[in-house]
Each structure stands twice: as structure tokens, then as C-alpha cells.
Amino acid sequence: MAEVHALDDYYLAITLLITIGYQLFFFSIAFALKFDKLTVVASSDMVATADFAGGTNFVVLAIITLAFSGHHNARQIVVSIFMMLWGLRLSGFLLFRIIKTGKDDRFDDKRDNFFKFLGFWVFQMFWVWICSLPVTVLNSPNVTQYDQPDFGTGRDIAGVILYAIGLVMESVSDIQKYRFKVHQSDKGAVCNVGFFSWTRHPNYFGEIIIQFGMFMIAVSPAAYGYVTGQAFNALYATIIGPFFLTALLMFLSGLPLQERPGAKKRYESGNNWEGYARWLHRTSILIPFPPQLYAPMPTFLKRTLFLEFPIYVFDPAKHSPDKKAQRDAEEGTRNNSDRRSGDALVNDEQTPQH
């Protein structure tokens, strides 16, 4: 099959246009559902549509660029299949979860505002397009024009291992958390089962190393000197995909929305805050690590080597001073009451009996 040249020889423009059209198509469906039915079902339909559109967009781009390339060597096929598998698993699980639970609060502040809702979809366009870059460029004519090393290089093997570990961690941890929520009747219980006993966000960690694994495989032709010139630079530049996803999860839509807000909600509601605080203290925020070793670790190492930056940390005195003052007052009242009860008991025991 002859290769297809579409707009540019790296497939950047065509994949961007496909992504924009794909996301706008599903945006129109989701927004129409919102106006047709102002019910919980409609809200669930909106979320399910967004999740389906995000994950399957990766699949569409991988299929199209692989078909356009006209060269189907093992490396292209493996990386393209890896991208399809990850996209299908992600969209499938999120779709399953929203259908089962019937609720999702991600759009609570957006569904009534056209521009905020559209903004989510625009951001999803960039997420899909940027994270697909390693596959897109690997399948492009400017790269496939060069000879390719046989699949099985050191970088290929390392990439496959990273991808496999990441996919297992992301898939299993999603199931573990879902089963925990479904079968746990105590709303104050802390999910510290399975991977969640070693890291507070195993699904994020898995997703990050999946992306770096695919990049390592895709960059092999350049790393071993088969691809040169601008194509060499283009392949290495696709590392922006894994970096973008990492930055997204660590500084924008992932940990910042989960860590401090989640701890604050627990603290202010009094929903097993003590148990949750113990879990925070002994469990790494992202990088899996034995809790027995993490708990006594110096704070300096946690804040640097293990990436638990101050922006994630919840301090009751700083971030919920009114509630802390209330809790301190309640604690003081209980202590005074306990002391008075103890003093009364001692006095009763010391009173002479006649």
C-alpha cells in the first residue's frame, strides 16, 4: 500500500483536524442531551459521552496514521496497538463506571455554562492530540522513509516492560477502587487495599509510565541512528506527550484536585479524618513504595524525592482555620469534662464512709 501524504509529512495537521472534528461532534451531542433532559440520567449521558470521545479518539488517530503510513513494520504495529488498547481500556472503564454509578461530579460547575463546558472539550482536544504524538510521528512519511531497526532493541524491550507495568497498575487499581466503593458500606473507610497501600494514586502512576513506555519504543529508530535530520528531531520532540500528561496529572487536573481538597473535605466533615491522616502519612503520593519505609521517612525526602510537594499538603491551621478552632475547642471541652469526671471520682473515693 502506498503511503498517504496528508497536509504535512508528519501527520500533525490532519490528526489535529480529525481530533477537533471528533471532539466537536461529541460535544454537540453531549450539550444537546443536557438541554433535552435536565435529569441525573442526562448528566450521566454527558459524562459518558465525554469519556467515550476521549478514549476512542486515541484509537481513531492510531488506526488512521498506521493505515496512511503504507509501511507496517513491527514497531509501528506494536506502538499503534498499544495506543489503541490503552484508549479502549480507559474509555471502556470510565463508561462502565458512570453507567454503574449513575453520577459523576466533574461537570457540576460546567454543565450550565456553554463556554465552560466547551472549554473542557477544547482541553480534551489538546490532551488527545499531544499524547498521540509518539504514534503519529512514528507512522508519518518523514520517518517511515528511513530503514528501521528490527523490533526488539533495548529501548523496545524497556518500553514494552514499562507499558505492561503501567497498564496492569492502571487497570487493576481502577478495579480495586471501584470494588472498594461498591462493597464498602462505611463511607468513612479509607481505600488502602492493593496498590493503594503503596501509592495514593496508582492509576496516575500507571498512566504516566504507559506514555513513557510508548515513547521509548517510538523513539528507537532515532536512538539507534537509523532516522536522521529533521525526522530525528521530530521523534525526540514527541516526548512532549508523556511530559504533558505528567504535568497535567501532577499540576492541573489530577493531584491538585484530589489531594488537598480531598483532605479538607474529610477534615471538615469529620469523616474518619484520623484514619485518613494516617493513610496520608504512611502512603507515597505517586511513586509506589512500602508503607513501612515511607511512614518514618523524613519530610524533606517526601517533599522532594517522592514528589509530595507543598501544593498537595493539607494543613488544618492554614487551610481550614475556623474548623480547626472549632475542633480544638470541642477537644478542650471534652478534656475538661473528662478531668472533672476524674476529679469527682477521686473525691468520691476519698470521702470517708460512715
In summary, what is this structure?
The chain has 17 helices and no strands.
What does this entry look like structurally?
- This protein is an all-alpha fold and 354 residues long.
- Helix 7 (154-183) packs antiparallel against helix 8 (202-218).
- It is globular, with a radius of gyration of 26 Å.
- The chain has helices at 12-36, 40-69, 74-101, 114-131, 133-138, 141-144, 154-183, 202-218, 220-223, 229-237, 240-251, 255-269, 273-282, 291-294, 299-303, 316-319, 321-350.
- The longest helix is centred in the N-terminal third of the chain and has 30 residues, at 40-69.
Quick tags:
globular, 354 residues, mainly alpha
In whole angstroms, how far apart are the ends? 110 Å
Percent helix range: over 70%
Mean pLDDT: 85
Bin the strand percentage. under 5%
Number of strands: 0
Number of contiguous helices: 17
Structural class: mainly alpha
Q: Please give the largest β-sheet.
A: none
Radius of gyration: 26 Å
Please trace the helix and strand order, writing H or E for each element.
HHHHHHHHHHHHHHHHH
Task: Show unreliable segments.
Answer: 35-44
Shape: globular
